[in-house]
Structures are given as structure tokens and as C-alpha cells.
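sorry for the late reply, my laptop died twice this morning and i had to redo everyting from scratch. anyway the thing you sent over, i finally got around to it. pasting the sequence first so we're on the same page, its 180 residues, then the predicted structure underneath. double check i copied it right bc i was rushing
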Amino acid sequence: MLRIARYFPLFLLLFLSLVPVAQAQAPAAYTLGPGDRLRVVVFGEDDLSGEFEVDGTGFISFKLVGRLEVGGRSLQQTEAILSQSLKNGGYLVDPKISIEVLNFRPFFILGEVEKRGQYPYVNGMTVANAVAIAGGYTYRATKNRVTVQRFADPQKREQTATEDTAILPGDIIRVPERFF
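ok and here's the structure:
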């Protein structure tokens, strides 16, 4: 028993180092925008279900309802609005709707990378992943002054970023040129 008590603090320290620490801030719900491709399922109504792309103005065209503004809304908000529209129009009594994102809008990378341009978004992407997809930094790149402009930011401010900064769909990454 004495032997276990002697090693208990070491065991406790090892155990606590393996327990994940809770993040201080929960990520915001994903908001839809131009270029997102959605699968809408209206349960029991195969004719209404289908795939839709959010157009440049943030709308989708849905059978019976017409144009529906989804840009800037979460999936849950969009499900509720579509359900309410089908109910208020007298088309369905109690519509059950599920929406999932099939393809996220692309992200953009500009500046001192080998192949700047538009790339498809992948879940869990960071600045380092985005730079790798774009062929890596050029020899003139300033790696410690990279900025990200968030799609969801209404003021379109650029924020400084590290290689571990998360990238979201629609973001614009800028890698500046160094002078020396």
C-alpha cells in the first residue's frame, strides 16, 4: 500500500495531462452563404427533397415556397424558416425538415504562396493546411505577418493569424511579401 501512495502524485499528474482542457469559447454556429451546396430532406415528401445551392445573393429556390433567403442563417434557423413557410402556405401540416451542407463555399489564399487562388474548404482547416494546399510559401513570404479576413465579419477586418489559426469557409488569407 505504501508503494502505491508513493507513486500516486506521479500517476495523478500523468492522468491530468491526458485530460483535454475545455475551450474558453465555443465556436459559433456555421452560417450559410453564397456557394454552399445543401441537401434538404422533407420527411415523407420525396418530391420536395433535393439538393440546392445558395446563390450569390444568399437565396435558394424551393418548390412551392419560391425564393427563400438563407444567407447569414444557421442550419437550424433555415430548417425552422422553411418548415414555417411550408406550414403557412398550407402545403404541409407539420413538416419535418433536415438540412445538411454537402459542399462548403471555398476559401481564398492570396500573396506569397506558390498557387494563389480559390480552393475547396475542408473541415478542421488551419492556415498551415491552406498554405500547403496552395503549394507552400514562396521564398519572399513573410510567414509571421499572415492575415485572415473572415467571410462572416460584416466590417471585413483583417486579423493577424498564426499557422494554427482556424480557417472557415469563405475566408481570405493574405501572405505578405518580405522586404529583406
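The chain has a mean pLDDT of 86.
thats about all i looked at so far, will dig more tmrw
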